[in-house]
Write a structure and sequence with these properties.
83 residues; mainly alpha; elongated; coiled coil
């Protein structure tokens, strides 16, 4: 009886150490990513981020316009096919 409880305690002790190691590892990786983002922000600055956002918005608008043109052409083709 005592040996099974001591083996159980050893197992939970190892599990506890593994869990703490995992939590610390994830925390360190998260902290590293946050620091890297701060580094990039400081390196590129606000104007670069604004330019990236503006470019992304312009690409999205262009994509929506192309999609609207395609849908309009498709509707016209369907109308011609029905007539």
């Amino acid at each position: 009886m005592a040996s099974s409880s001591s083996s159980r305690l050893k197992f939970f002790d190892k599990l506890h150490k593994f869990t703490i190691t995992g939590i610390l590892g994830v925390s360190l990786i998260s902290a590293g990513l946050v620091l890297y983002n701060f580094y990039l922000f400081k390196k590129e600055g606000v104007p670069m981020l604004i330019e990236k956002y503006r470019t992304k918005v312009e690409e999205d608008i262009e994509l929506k316009q192309r999609e609207a043109e395609y849908l309009e052409e498709r509707r016209q083709a369907e109308k011609k096919a029905q007539n």
